[in-house]
Structure formats: C-alpha cells, structure tokens
Amino acid sequence: MTSLLKSSAFAITLSVSAMTAMVVPTLSAQAAVPTDASLMKLIKVTKIVETMNDMSSDNEMTEEMMKTMLASMPNNELNAAQRKRFDEIILKYSKEMTKRDNVEGINKQIVNMYMQSAKKHFDQKEVDAQIEFYSTEVGQSIIDKQPAMMKDYMAQIMPIIMESTMKKMQEVMPKMAADLKALTSEK
Q1: pLDDT tens-digit profile of 152-162?
Q2: Which residues contact 27 (CB under 8 A, 6 or more apart)?
Q3: For residue 41, which of 122, 102, 100 has the smallest C-alpha distance?
Q4: What burial letters (b/e) apply to 120-148, b meaning 16+ CB within 10 Å?
C-alpha cells in the first residue's frame, strides 16, 4: 500500500509538470536535453519534493484510501464495536505507513526519478519556460494550491476507481481461476 501511495503521489506530481508541457509548443526532436542544474531549479520552484513529502505523510488521505479499498472487500458487515476497532486499526496502520523515517532516501529517489522522466519528455526550452512561469506569483499560487486540489480530486476519484476495479476483479477472478485449474489438469 505504501508503494501504491507513493507511486500515485509521484504520478500526480509529475502530471502537474506534464500539464504545463501541453501549453509549451513542441520543439524538434533535436532540441537540447535539459541540464541537471535546470531540472534541479524546476524541482525547487515547483516544490516537487515538499509536495511529495506532504502527500506521503498525509494520514487522512492514506486512511481514506485504505478505507475505500477495504470497504469494497466482501464480508464488510461489522457491528458497532467491530466498526470502532476497524477504524482504530486503519488509523494505526495509516500512521505506520506514513512514518517519515526514510525521508532523505525517498527524497533522493524522487529527485532522480523526476530528472530521468523530465529528460525523456522535456527539452531545455520547455524546462526554462516552466521555471519562468512557476517562478511568477501566479505560478507559485498554482503550485501551492495543487496538493489540496489533488487531495480533493483523489478523495472523489478513488472510490470510483476502487469500485470499478473490485467489480471487474469479481467478474474476472472466477474465470481466471477456472482457466488456471484447467491448465493444471492438462497433461
């Protein structure tokens, strides 16, 4: 679940930069690969590391994601005492999942992965344009509002995704089990 949360949070953060790239005209395939220094400046101005740390330490968001996943599991009919204990367990493990004991190592990975991805998708002019925009008052306002907007969006979309996924799994799993059983009985 921790890796799912971190992967989701990283993908969300990357999407902020990707959305900006759509506004910037596409340059030829021979355009300059962004420098590490310019990408570090972009990471700093867009507050990628801070955003990732905030999102991965958000107990409320993690707790809601866990509740959403567990709510779609069968046999979820609990009495009041069981429901209270269920909520306590969710809170306990949500806190455990969001401990900050490995922040420095994670931050290095965030930066390295972002730089690798950005070099694949942006050229130097696009990076420079993003830095220029996000350095403005409006750009900083957007960056500052993005985590709250994404939290709101994720709270709305995760139940839909989980319900759809669980429905499809319930449909597919018996068929897959039958195919696997048939495979093991083949000679």
Answers
A1: 898 898 889 88
A2: 123, 125, 126
A3: 122
A4: eebbeebbbbbbebbeeeebeebbeebbe
Q: Cα–Cα distance between 66 and 58 in angstroms, integer?
A: 12
Task: Assign 39 a pLDDT band (cuts: 50, 70, 90).
Answer: very high
- Give the separation between CA 86 and CA 82, rounded to whole angstroms: 6
Between CA 98 and CA 81 the distance in angstroms is 26
Query: For residue 140, how many C-alpha atoms fall within 13 Å in the half-sphere facing its CB?
Result: 5
Q: What is the DSSP letter of 26?
A: P
Mention every residue, 6+ apart, whose C-beta is less than 8 A from residue 128: 38
The most confident of the ranges 74-83, 87-96, 126-135, 178-187 is 126-135
pTM recorded for the entire structure: 0.55
Query: What is the pLDDT, as a whole number, of residue 16?
Result: 46
Sign of the Cα pseudo-torsion (7, 20, 150, 143, in order): positive
Residues 33 and 119: beta-carbon distance below 8 Å: yes
